[in-house]
Design brief:
Layout lengths: L1 E4 L6 H10 L5 E4 L2 H4 L6 E4 L7 H6 L4 E4 L6 H15 L3 E5 L11 H14 L4 E7 L10 H7 L1 E4 L11 H13 L7 E4 L7 H12 L4 E4 L2 H10 L4 H11 L13 H6 L6 H8 L5
Parallel strand pairs: 1-2, 1-4, 2-3, 4-5, 5-6, 6-8, 7-9
Protein name: Nucleotide-diphosphate-sugar epimerase
Pfam families: NAD_binding_10
């Protein structure tokens, strides 16, 4: 039985769907089981990783675990999960990490992901780490302002990133969960083309058929907005530092990894946009 931690997230939900398509019956951990709306065949487990015992309940009897933690609480959640992996004897773990964890690690955000990877390795279980570039779905953060006044605000507007579709990350995750040969590996996952935020904004305007205004926010403006939204100051600082440094090895240049692992090219941003355009109308 495969356990999906973070099953309501943009990657986790896709993992659940693909496991069902393979005839498997995953266990999905979610904080909101009533609103999760998973398809029949999923064992839905409600629980919050802030609560002691949730990790053990989720991983009890697991043959493999997919882990996607996020936000300021992620380091604590990963520590709890790693301890539970060891206690429950989970044979295989696949964790969504980040390109920021690629050495040399240069910022606190990458340090947190690298520390999480090491925590799972230390359990002695077979681990695979997926290190995606920025997700195409991050574009959804513009939806409210696009609908409100036709603007998109983001810092580092001219830095390229080979953004990746979360569905491609999920497909790689399912293969590494269910097929042999991925133990001890770390895969950097990107989309097929480098795009700046300004590029994505232009394509969104074309797809909507109306003019939009891209505002290249300063780092300080972005910092203030994220803190105002409730994120801790030190977490915002770490995240913005990582976002402002997409080096070629860390998501700025497309890599063939998705195609090598899935047998098909990664999805293009235009394809993702067509599927998700309704969010911006």
């Amino acid at each position: 039985m495969i356990v999906v931690i973070g099953a309501s997230g943009n990657v986790g939900r896709e993992v659940v769907t693909r496991l069902l398509e393979r005839g498997l019956r995953p266990r999905a951990l979610t904080r909101n089981p009533q609103g999760a709306a998973f398809a029949p065949g999923v064992e839905v487990l409600g629980g919050d990783l802030d609560d002691p015992g949730t990790a053990d309940r989720a991983l009890d009897g697991a043959d493999a675990a997919f882990v996607a933690t996020a936000g300021p609480a992620a380091p604590a959640h990963d520590e709890a999960l790693a301890r539970a992996v060891a206690r429950c004897g989970v044979p295989r773990v696949v964790r969504v990490s980040s390109v920021a964890a690629l050495p040399p690690v240069t910022d606190a955000y990458g340090t947190a992901h690298a520390a999480a990877e090491e925590a799972y390795r230390a359990t002695g279980t077979a681990c695979t780490f997926l290190r995606p570039a920025a997700f195409m779905s991050n574009t959804l953060q513009w939806a409210w302002s696009v609908k409100a006044d036709g603007t998109m605000h983001q810092p580092f507007g001219d830095l390229p990133q080979a953004v990746v579709d979360p569905a491609d990350v999920a497909e790689v995750a399912v293969r590494t969960l269910t097929e042999p040969g991925h133990e001890g590996k770390a895969y950097t996952l990107t989309g097929p083309e480098p795009l700046t935020a300004r590029d994505r904004a232009h394509r969104l305007a074309q797809a909507l058929g109306r003019p939009l205004t891209f505002v290249d926010a300063s780092e300080e403006e972005a910092h203030q907005a994220m803190v105002k939204a409730g994120l801790p100051d030190d977490y915002v600082t770490a995240l913005l530092t990582a976002l402002g440094d997409p080096t070629p090895a860390r998501g700025a240049v497309p890599l063939p990894t998705v195609e090598e692992l899935t047998g098909r090219p990664p999805r293009r941003f235009d394809t993702w946009l067509k599927t998700n355009l309704h969010h911006f109308r």
